[in-house]
Amino acid sequence: MSLNSKDKKKLKSFLKLLKEKRRTFIGYPVNTTFDYSEISDFLDFPINNVGDPFDSSYYGINSREFETEVLDWFAKLYEAPLNNYWGYVTSGGTEGNMYGLYLAREIYPKGVVYYSQDTHYSVSKNIRMLRMDHVMIKSKPNGEMDYDDFSNMLSTWRSAPPIIFANLGTTMKEGVDDINKIKKILKDLAIPEYYIHADAAMAGMTLPFVDGAKFYNFKDGIQSISISGHKVIGSPVPCGVVLTLKSNVGRIARAIEYVGTLDTTVSGSRNGFTPILLWHAIKDKGFNGFKKIVRECLKTADRAVKKFNENGIEAWKNDNAITIVFPKPSEYVTSKWQLAMQDDHCHILVMPQVNDELIDELVDDILNK
Ligand SMILES: *Cc1c(COP(=O)(O)O)cnc(C)c1O
Q1: Which of 30, 42, 65, 91, by CA, is between 20 and 30 Å from 236?
Q2: Can you give 201-246 as a three-state secondary structure string?
Q3: Which of 272, 258, 265, 259 is nearest to 49 (CA)?
């Protein structure tokens, strides 16, 4: 079994293109510096974690043992109650966010979703798919929710239980919604019943590792959280983790005879390789390894903002953020550096592959191209 020479050539030139594109990949929150060669043998098996990771399954070629270890690690990181948490390895941040909203809707079928303008574009689609009532809240210039607007909207819709979709690091500006302020507003309006989901797609793997940074977690009253695995951790295949309280999941669980497991997840068949991959990353780096990586990224990001500003480019970033926002440069620059744009600004993400030399090259391009 082998490809003909034309097809082989096609693959070879695609590989070359990928290597070129990876060099100037700075516009998305994706770490490109991973090495999973130690676990590549597992790609030879049809590993499938169909169904509930904590339940057994007739499908024997599964990596549940690795998946549950990964979930335990994240549960500790986000201070979930260790005897009352549940979760699974998802296909990415979007699925985890959808799952959080789904649970919230099952708990509060008449609930209204509150989410800020700066929320990831996939969320409004998910809300439509789930047919949930929703209110969009204004954002502040730094990407954080506008709490006055939130408070006003909340008083208007007071009779419906609020489902707060909170951003712990927005996509464009890495703004963090203040869960304590949100809870205070709920309390001031005497709203006893609510649900808070946290979208920590990217910052869920940075903020918990920064000394002195506040990362809102289960102890602060969030009921579910979603993160992406392919962003800060890095992965050749998109993946993510969703965690919630076990008591939330009970009402959606259905036992399915065909696969001998509980159907608690969004998809049926689930990737059995990504749990091994995340497990490898966690074992390889550990808490202190990630802490070091994040510290380096923050240092480079601070230096980058300085460099931009010294050269007259109006760049800024939030505290403890690795996202740098600046005015939209020329098309040459946005295309070479694969920059995501919104209105008149764009951003870069200082991921582990980004160093001072790369920033210098980018600044040079912005000034001259
Ligand atoms: C990336 C991102 C998402 C989507 O995650 P995927 O893993 O791409 O599905 C959702 N929310 C935020 C804030 C993000 O940065």
Answers
A1: 65
A2: CCHHHCHHHCCCCCCCCHHHCCCEEEEECHHHHHCCCCCEEEEEEH
A3: 272
Q: How is residue 150 written in tokens?
A: 């939130």
Residue 67 DSSP SS3: helix
- Give the pairing type, strands 255-256 and 261-262: antiparallel
CA distance 343 to 294: 29
CA 256 / ligand 1 centre spacing (Å) = 30
Contact status, residue 47 vs residue 65, Cβ threshold 8 Å:
no
Mean pLDDT of 248-257: 68
Q: Are strands 195-199 and 162-167 parallel, antiparallel or unpaired?
A: parallel
Listed in sequence order, the residues at least 6 apart from 88 whose beta carbon sits closer than 8 Å to its beta carbon are: 49, 52, 53, 67, 71, 241, 242, 264, 265, 270
Q: Among the listed ranges 320-324, 341-345, 360-364, which one has the minimum average pLDDT value?
A: 341-345
pTM greater than 0.85: yes
CA dihedral in degrees (98, 104, 109, 110; nearest 10)? -100
> Taking the C-alpha atoms of 43, 44, 46 and 52 in order, what is their torsion angle to the nearest 10 degrees?
-40
Q: What residues does ligand 1 touch, defined as CB less than 6 Å away?
A: 29, 92-94, 97, 120, 122, 167, 169-171, 199, 201-202, 228, 238, 240
Whose structure tokens read 């649900």? 195
| pLDDT tens readout for residues 36-79 | 999 999 999 999 999 899 988 888 999 999 999 999 999 999 99
Structure tokens of 67?
Answer: 């998946």
- The whole-chain average pLDDT of the chain stands at 94
Ligand 1 atom nearest to 239, measured from its CA: 7
CA–centroid distance, 119 to ligand 1, in Å, is 9
For CA atoms 241, 246, 248, 254, give the dihedral sign: positive
Closest alpha carbon to 348 in 18, 23, 25: 25
Torsion on CA atoms 88, 94, 95, 97, rounded to nearest 10: 80
